[in-house]
Write a structure and sequence with these properties.
alpha+beta; four-stranded mixed β-sheet; 6 strands; about 15% strand
Length: about 190
């Protein structure tokens, strides 16, 4: 019996660090040294958006000097929640009526860019990522309500789901171990 109790205690001690894992990826304020949210409002039918995504996938994501600095957050503009959020971003940056609804709309920290061009945009994007990463900047998009929740709240809900799943797995393991102990204890008494 002492052997099984020791096993349960060892398992609990090993699993305790997992209970405190912080899976949160996104924040509403970018402190120096934390990943920057790189928001892209796009449309599936937009060829310029496709060029931007190709640049991100083939060049920026492979750039070891910058790829650890940002987290890409793609927001399809035809989705009603994302469309409302894009409208709030447009209000925040005082975009003209002609510019509202245009994609791609890129937001990094406190900066935004409309459109994408391989000639000039990559440098602007990298500079914005570096600036937001090195300085403490507000995450403008995460700070805006998109109807009932904010982008940061969405991520928190994902984190809560991840934490709930981890907790359930841990409880299941503990339950199985306890059942095995009780079952084996009953077998020992019968013999």
């Amino acid at each position: 019996m002492k052997k099984y109790l020791s096993l349960v205690l060892v398992l609990l001690v090993m699993l305790m660090p997992l209970m405190g894992v912080d899976a949160k990826k996104k924040t509403t304020t970018t402190a120096a040294g934390k990943k920057v949210n790189f928001y892209v409002f796009y449309s599936e039918s937009c060829s310029v958006c496709a060029s931007l995504h190709q640049y991100i996938e083939t060049t920026l994501s492979k750039d070891k000097a910058h790829n650890y600095m940002y987290e890409l957050v793609d927001l399809e503009a035809s989705n009603s929640v994302n469309s409302n959020l894009m409208s709030l971003v447009s209000d925040k940056f005082n975009l003209s009526e002609d510019s509202r609804g245009r994609v791609p709309l890129i937001v990094i920290g406190e900066q935004y860019f409309l459109g994408f061009s391989l000639d000039t945009s990559p440098e602007k994007i990298v500079n914005a990522i570096e600036k937001a990463y090195k300085e403490e900047q507000d995450d403008v998009v995460a700070g805006l309500p998109d109807g009932s929740i904010t982008v940061a709240d969405k991520n928190l809900k994902e984190e809560e789901k991840n934490s709930d799943t981890t907790g359930l797995i841990i409880l299941a393991i503990i339950g199985i171990v306890l059942i095995l102990i009780v079952y084996s204890r009953g077998k020992t008494k019968e013999a």
